[in-house]
Amino acid sequence: MRNDDRRKRVVVSGVAPEVDGGRYAVKRIVGEDVVVTADLIGDGHDLVTGDVLWRKAGRRKWNRVRLEALGNDAYRATFPVPGIGAYEFTVQGWIDAFGSWRRDLEKRVDANQDVAVDLLIGAALVREAAERAKGVGKRGLEKYAAQLEGEGDIEDRVEAALSDHLKATMDAWPDLEHAVTHDVVQPVRVDRRRAGFSAWYEMFPRSTSTKPGRHGTFRDAAKRLDYIADLGFDVVYLPPIHPIGKTLRKGPNNNPDGESGAVGSPWAIGAKEGGHDAIHPELGTMKDFKTFLAAAKKLGMEVALDLALQCAPDHPWVGEHPDWFRRRPDGSVQYAENPPKKYEDIVPLHFGGSRPDAMWSALYRIVKHWIDAGVRIFRVDNPHTKPFVFWEWLIAKIRKTDPDVLFLAEAFTRPKIMAHLGKVGFTQSYTYFTWRNSAWEFEQYLTELTTTASREFFRPNFWTNTPDILAEHLVKGGPAAFAMRTVLATTLSGNWGMYGPAFELMENVPVQEGSEEYLDSEKYEIRHWDLDAEPNVKDLIRTMNRIRHEHPALQQTNDITFHETTNGELLCYSKRAGDDVVLVVVNMSWAYPHSGFLNLDLHALGLAGGEKFTVRDLLDGATYEWEGERNYVELEPKDQPAHVFVLERS
Amino acid sequence: MRNDDRRKRVVVSGVAPEVDGGRYAVKRIVGEDVVVTADLIGDGHDLVTGDVLWRKAGRRKWNRVRLEALGNDAYRATFPVPGIGAYEFTVQGWIDAFGSWRRDLEKRVDANQDVAVDLLIGAALVREAAERAKGVGKRGLEKYAAQLEGEGDIEDRVEAALSDHLKATMDAWPDLEHAVTHDVVQPVRVDRRRAGFSAWYEMFPRSTSTKPGRHGTFRDAAKRLDYIADLGFDVVYLPPIHPIGKTLRKGPNNNPDGESGAVGSPWAIGAKEGGHDAIHPELGTMKDFKTFLAAAKKLGMEVALDLALQCAPDHPWVGEHPDWFRRRPDGSVQYAENPPKKYEDIVPLHFGGSRPDAMWSALYRIVKHWIDAGVRIFRVDNPHTKPFVFWEWLIAKIRKTDPDVLFLAEAFTRPKIMAHLGKVGFTQSYTYFTWRNSAWEFEQYLTELTTTASREFFRPNFWTNTPDILAEHLVKGGPAAFAMRTVLATTLSGNWGMYGPAFELMENVPVQEGSEEYLDSEKYEIRHWDLDAEPNVKDLIRTMNRIRHEHPALQQTNDITFHETTNGELLCYSKRAGDDVVLVVVNMSWAYPHSGFLNLDLHALGLAGGEKFTVRDLLDGATYEWEGERNYVELEPKDQPAHVFVLERS
Known about the structure:
Distance between the termini of chain A: 65 Å
Oligomer: homodimer
Radius of gyration of chain A: 31 Å
Strand content of chain A: 25-35%
Strand order of the largest sheet of chain A: 11-12-13-18-19-20-21-22
Number of strands of chain A: 30
Largest interface: A-B, 59 and 59 residues
């Protein structure tokens, strides 16, 4: 142990936020603050102080912000992350020799002790600081030291010693020689706003033709954009747009009879027309696609592409790169399986091969190809079936050149696998939202997402439905369920999404009873949608998307509070961002009216104890005069699934 | 990223126990098991498996124990720590290719699929394992591979493929080429039994003379040992035994008039007769001390010395090593202070000096000196006023030659500082036990000590009193309070201690009202104790120490369960070690009888739901027939402060 280490008296521990000892980044949104807390202790009775050190990754110089004591040896400081990209921070602590001396001097003065010698001790500390200081600070400290050492009136010298100005100057020139720096440098990934606040609309462009039965094109899809923008969405997500394999192509309702004339599944990627960097000829050309992108942009929307890293048997790679696929002992290419099920129209890329480099680079080039075409958001299909290290490498590599690109992880698998995909870099993640039904399930799930370590690296995106998931509540609950799920998805999570027009038109017939698959699913055939069909949930979607834009409280996920209710069918929660508070009460039953009392956490609502306040329902405009914690609500699902209140002080 | 890293598909995380990312050791007792849990995930649907790797520190070769799946991607394995000293472990995970193949084969067979090609795939895995294997395993695997590949009956080949014997052989020769090893190697500190199970008796040897007023010697103290052993103690702890400073020596009741004839405080260490390696002449010689040690040993007891690293102004070091002490600007040596209080009879060692090496080495030599004299336990005075890095260095250095030496940290300071002293190596720690009074305070405090990270590195020692701490409950509560605190200390913690004969003789007069200082404290004067005085709590102490020796449940701290009671004045808890279960109910009021119902956690007691059982009170021998969770108790503090039950099945 070096002499220098032997003089390090401070211990820094319990630093938060921290993900796996700094191995993975914590995620923030541009303009947010990073609030850092840490425990600092030293031996003896001396005061301890410290800084958070932070910088943009790649910069040499640390910025510093002084820690504030919270009591019980805990400290806190906050730093801003104004730009997209990678930041990092750590914590440094040291003994505050001057602060300790000053505290003791005050006690001695209060006890009327002779402090002449103590003033000399303090003067020495000030002289040492003057050695470190520069400019005005240096001259000021030299002057103070001279006064403390001097022959002046003792009361004047004590007053100078205890002055706020001396303290502030000393604080500006701390003695860092024996400072202790935390051994973790925690990375912070800062994304653009849409990473945390977005509304996704998934649609099949091939179903956008106005002529029933005709294969829709990007030109048809572009005409649909006004409608989607009017509903308030900002991301239009397209299933894979690449040539669809012909070998063993699936027909309607996933029947294995698709060879003759069936359009096939867009996820069976690759044919003689090309692979992942090509466009399905029936959708149009690259030029058409770019026109579509431009049209979306004009309406304030972005286009998300699907990144499904798997191949149809006639994908060009199957012939060109035999070592990218696994072979069976009989020489055939290994198709996808989930034994005893076989998916012979899909051949998975073999990530376990002995030379992954060429394949990884090719996959990178695919992503880069679409980025260069103007795509900035990718929804990644089944990321959990490819190695975590691949995603970590790919996403980091993309971000070096294109830090604004977002990746949504489509994984509905085991919780720890989903969490790890968030850690390795996915910007957003699908969740178990679709399978949560009761009030207590939602409270438990949101508490897990927003109050555990998860909140730092896992950004949920709540989907009401997908082409793969028609949940039981939509099948059985009808219009009231569609409305309830719309309110839940749009208010519980900063990011939400739906697959349309199936959702807004309340499509809810499964391929067979108990199945989560849609009957006549667009995955396997072209659908023609009557966008004016009744009933629909378009007005509520439009309203909720508007409310989200008007209320910062709904533009984030983590600041949420659940409030007790006297009826287990009523879910009550509030979200807050600064002064903006939105209070939501949802009747979790689609069938029956429910009423009960709320037991509001007034502090979380920014209200004082006895205060009267008005709640105004943003859905129907009704207002209620409330007072205190206990307030009555009643919701009839046929009329209105929920209250979405704003608070107005009386 | 290397190709090899690109093929690592498993992620190991959430490893427990772990202290600050492996920076500090977890503590265990010889003969205990270390139970390791970890989360292991891989991409895709393949099975994951892994090992805990463990070894004695310094050994090259890891021992392995296979992880057992607990569900939800959590795994567990256990390894033994049979010897005193340092161990370490980590966790390794890999894809279980054969296990995954075997699982899928079963499904295919169940679905009556043609598995001829699959058997060839499995055969290849077995051939690869045979390459790795040796001896019988190798030959066996080669035989299996030939059979799977062969022309034999398909049912026979499938039976061989799914046989337990093949699985066990494959498990014995895993493919570790792409295994992932957790990046933390967690140290484990294994101490001898007394580290976790001990009963301490603190006494001033100078107060052991049978003649009132005469200074007691080690010879007198040796005669006291039978008495202490009879009470059931195993550690006799002596305040400092070194020459006591004469300069500004304190008199009775800490009055600053001690120069003339006062015996002084043993913590004012050092005089012209010597410093920390010398013996106070009035106590005797080194030979007398060694005789005392031998006498204790003969009775099955150990002697703990006090390590108080501070000096009286006439300590030899003050003259010999001026740079080990801080000087004031007027040239005087800086005495101890807690402004505005001054302790001019003590000069602290200055750990902040620029060349700490010589002083650290001298302090090490002091400790080693007493170890070489036969001392194996040190109670460290005020460790929190010396740098943490010093203790970490000192304790590690001592353990290199003397791994059985124990250190008890005397720190009643801020919780995070106390915790950190445990982390840097102290074997046991004083606690806030003395200041916890109500049932809910105890439940909260023990829950913190035994269920948070603290349980891994902080070993509590519960002291009923010390020469510095005469708690209010003893002052006000009289005999009932002494009895209640005896039961609490002896049953809540594996380690307990008391300062006698003050405690067993129920000394409880403070120097002034509201003070925690004893009147006529032995710290400043010689006391003469009448060991037969009544009332006393000797019988209860003897009984409790005996019960502790008879019940393994009470020989540890962490396995404790609190049970609900219907009366907040009744504290109910059980401790368990294997089949041994002790259930304690304490009336927390020393003044009034209390009764109520217990709501027992039957599972924690090892009982089934409707079972009848008998509880036998080890204090008074009474038995009660109980059934189910709800059982009535009633305690009159004047008769008995608590029930200490053992459970007997009917």
